[in-house]
Every structure is written in structure tokens, then in C-alpha cells.
Amino acid sequence: MRAINDISVILDDYEGYLMLEKGLSSNTIVSYRSDIDKLVRFLADKKMMLRDTDAATLHEFLATLHDIGIAPSSQARIISGLKSFFRYLKTEDYIVDNPMLLIDAPHLGRHLPEVLSVEEIDRMIECVDVSAPEGQRNRAIIETLYSCGLRVSELVNLSLSNIFLDEQYVIVRGKGSKERMVPISDTAITEISRYMEQRACMDIKPGEEGILFLNRRGHRLSRVMVFYVIKRQCELAGIRKEISPHSLRHSFATHLLEGGANLRAIQQMLGHESIATTEIYLHLDRSLLRQEILLHHPRNMM
């Protein structure tokens, strides 16, 4: 059995394993590392070594998380990360037995984000002050999130080289660096084209030249900034729902489903690995995907 001399070295190697062998996103890797750090600190307080961790200790750790008010969904994520880490330790011969085999995640009901109506989305866009420096950009952001069903992380990293306005689709790099092709509506194309005219006059910082959406200083947007943009526009539109950028993605899928779109087409456009994920609310060629959008998305029913 290999010695655990420096936990930081093992964690660095584990991060490399998650990135290179498992293909996980940087956000997921950061979350896993943070959750493992929580356990390491807990063990240090108990003067225990990582190798001595058993199921009873893990249950005590998880009970502590519950006692301090960590939500069940967050507990489930932490358990998932720890299961992955202890599997890695077992595979790499750092431990003999995997104590996480006896740990079950809390049962979670299906939580669905709020859905915006087409009328509410229209109100959000109409309330954008296009005379403001960021106004046209914000219109383009809302339309792109809604028309393409993007995750906010996918939006902020959307590159110019993956946007094909003439062909009316974008290439999106999603979880695990997997790419998918998503048709884009005429309305979103119009808003992006108008923003691109303004973007051409910006002082763009080195290294950010290929990123579509930028802030006024020429840097790519943060996910938090997009959240505030959406939140602000909801307030201006008088929408009292608990809304985030993900609500636009969920609205995209819900409106397509209500319009009769093929479930597996929605699965592919959302980038879900499992159809079960899509079912809470494939593999088709570009022309069929485009047809699904044209037939069923509200933005094309003019």
C-alpha cells in the first residue's frame, strides 16, 4: 500500500485524474476539491489521518453538515465527490477498503426551477435600456440563453469561432468539454448581430479576443454578472418569481416540450447525457435539429 505523506500532492494528482481521465469541467473539479478539503479539516480536528477514515467517521462528518444547515442537495453533491475521491484512493492503492461504499446520499425530490412565460421573457427584453453601454449586450444575452437553452457557464465561454449566424447554429462546449450543436433563432441572431457592431468598437483585453460576451472593460463576463443581469431585468419587468439564468434554460426546454418537440431532440440540444435528466420537464442531424426549433420554439412562431 502506498504511503500518504502529503495530502496536497495526492489532491493535485486527483485533480489531474478528474480532468484528463474523467473529463470533468473545472467548476466540478473545484467543487470536488472544496468538499474534500472540508473532510480533511474535519479529520484534522479529530486528529485522524485520511487512511484511518471509516464509515462511522464519515457518517459523523455528514451529520455535522446536516446540523449546520447544509441543504440535502448540497449534501448529495458532497457525498458524490467523496465517493469519487475514495474510489481513486482505492484504485491508486492508498487505502485497502473504501469506506464510502456504505454511505448513501440523501433522497432528493425533483426540484424544478421557475419557468418564465414567453410574455415574461418579452417583458424582460423590452425593459432593457439599449441606450446604456451594456444594453444591447444584455438583450443578446437573454435571447441567447432562451433561444439556445445554454447553461450560464456555456454562455460566458461562448467563442466567436463557434458562432455561425449565417447557418443559424452555434457550437457549445458543455460539461466535460463535450461539444454539441444548437440551432439559434432569428431573434437571437438579430440581437447578437447588433451587439457585435458595438463589440467591434471595444477595447478588448489580450486573451479575450475570441470570447463573444464581454464587460465594459473588455473581459469576459463572470457567471455572477450574468446572474445579476437576469435578476435586474426580472425586477424591472415586475416578475416576482425566483429567477436565475438557469430559469431561461428550463423555459427553453419546457416551451419546446409544450410545443410538441421530440424529447430526444431536446435532450441533445440541452447536452444531457441521460434522457432521464430531460424527462423532468439523440442523435439527430443539423437539419432535423433546426426543424425542431423552427416548428416548436415560440421565437419562430411569428
The chain-level structural class is mainly alpha
Major sheet description: 3 strands, antiparallel
The 3D shape can be described as elongated
Beta-strand content: under 5%
Average residue-wise pLDDT? 85
Strand order of the largest sheet: 1-2-3
Listing every helix as H and every strand as E from the N terminus to the C terminus, the arrangement reads: HHHHHHHEEEHHHHHH
The residue ranges in which pLDDT falls below 50 over 5 or more consecutive positions are: 282-288
Q: Portion of residues in helices?
A: 40-55%
Q: Mind telling me the C-alpha Rg? A: 22 Å
Distance between the termini: 67 Å
Number of distinct helices? 13
The total strand number stands at 3
Walkthrough of the structure:
- The protein is mainly alpha-helical.
- The protein is 53% helix and 4% strand.
- The protein is built from 13 helices and 3 strands; from the N terminus they run αααααααβββαααααα.
- It has helices spanning 7-20, 26-45, 55-67, 72-91, 118-126, 135-148, 152-156, 186-199, 223-236, 245-258, 263-270, 275-278, 286-296, and strands at residues 163-164, 169-173, 179-183.
- A 3-stranded antiparallel beta sheet has the order 1-2-3.
- A hairpin with a 4-residue loop joins β1 and β2 (169-173).
- α2 crosses α4, α5 (118-126) packs across α9 (223-236) and α6 (135-148) crosses α10.
- It is elongated, with a radius of gyration of 22 Å.
- The termini are far apart.
Quick recap of the structure?
By secondary structure, the chain is mainly alpha-helical. The chain has helices at 7-20, 26-45, 55-67, 72-91, 118-126, 135-148, 152-156, 186-199, 223-236, 245-258, 263-270, 275-278, 286-296; strands at 163-164, 169-173, 179-183.
